[in-house]
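Session log. Operator J.P. requested a structure for one protein chain; no other inputs attached. Running the standard single-chain path with token output.
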Amino acid sequence: MKNFHNQSALSVLRTLVCFILCPLGAEPQTKQLFYQLDLSASASLDIPAENSALYSAGGTAGMRALFRDCDIRIYDTLPDTSSADYSTVSSFSDFCALAKKPQYGAAFSFNRFIHFPVKVLTGTLSPGGSFTRLSSPELSVSVSPLAKSFSTKTGLSSALPSASSGEKQLAGFAEIKVPEKYRTFSGTGISFFYREDKTFAGSAVCCVKLPRMMNTGFAVTAGRFFLSNTSMSWFSNTNFFLPGWFTAFSCQAFFTSQFFMSLFTINAYEQPSDKPRLTYRSENKLALGGFALHFAGFASDGKDIRCTDNSLLNTLAQIRIIPQYTWRFASPRLPSLCAGAACLVQYRQDRSGECEYGDIKYAFETRYTDKYISGELSFGTSSIRFLDDTEESAAATGYTAAARFSHSKSGIRSSASASCTFSENSAEETCTLSLNTTGKGIRTSTSAKTSFGQKDGDYDGGTASLGFACTFSSRYLKYTARINIKTEY
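Structure written below.
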């Protein structure tokens, strides 16, 4: 009888393992194993006007190997290094010491072997999603009158390194989702993130597809983060506390339809003062025909909230409104004209002067596009302070006017842009020209940029840069080379 039970248990276990590990079908196995190898290299050179011998140079080299179930990347960067530092290099090890730590990572997909989507990432990863919302809960301070719709993706996410990524710590990320055949709950799943400094976060997401192209869902994220008082001065404005691990939570809810979409986020932070702190963020979009209205808001329950990246939150409240309207015309060239305005009102804390103030930013933009050409005109301001008792400490308000035009036809795209930023006692003008070509297996990009400034009516110097990039691609190999030269005058 005992042997019978053992055999039954082994049979059940064997059946379960076969169910999990067997492929979902024959079609995925017919796909090729290797897709493409991407190689990239870039170099930059900065030549000062006073003495060209005191140049600085840097570069980045990288590789990406894309397989059927795996994505492997590695990048190494040499930061801009002066010629004086290069003169001290006497061996290859000295040269390697100038470079940053290599950034690398790999993503593995197990969809072909198990009955539900599983993705695992490891390496120097960049966390995102609700992880970023916990470290930066406020709205973006940029104002874009013709901004596209915001993302309603909730929960944790993570990305492999790229050529432009900064130094990141070694980390791991895992995500498990409901199979696509359960379309009503598509997008539902759990994910986990762990970093070598022992930072940990996990999230659970529930998505529900409703009739008439509507979707709704919610996500809960929790994690532990290390906080410390980085200011050691006797005259520090923040209270001293013992460094340690603190928890934080994020709850998100979203709704999308053809005419309306919304994302609401509540963050809760454990603080060294033992009093939990809360932040609230709401992003919404209403679309009716050619009219679209973006409106968003942010609020915190008070000052001195220490976020998960150990920074103190300076923003106390925000409101952003972006109305847009698009006219579409009947023509084979598919022309359209879009106009929009954006306004951001903030109430912030100035830690340098230990005061509270309000500021407002606004911008206007119009854009014409058709099958071949595109043109834009914009005007905006930097922050204009109000409700402030220390007016002499506020920076002068700046204004920016810009224009851009581009033309594309037969694989050739040319563009030109110009902008002018000015304030009460200074101004800066910038002009950029670019030319992109696309052919069979090759793409090129050339750009030239110059800028110069004035201060108190006098010339304040300028810069000029020239960039070139070329990409060769075939079925299994892709190579990109870039070079950028910059000088001052």
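Operator note: The mean pLDDT is 88.
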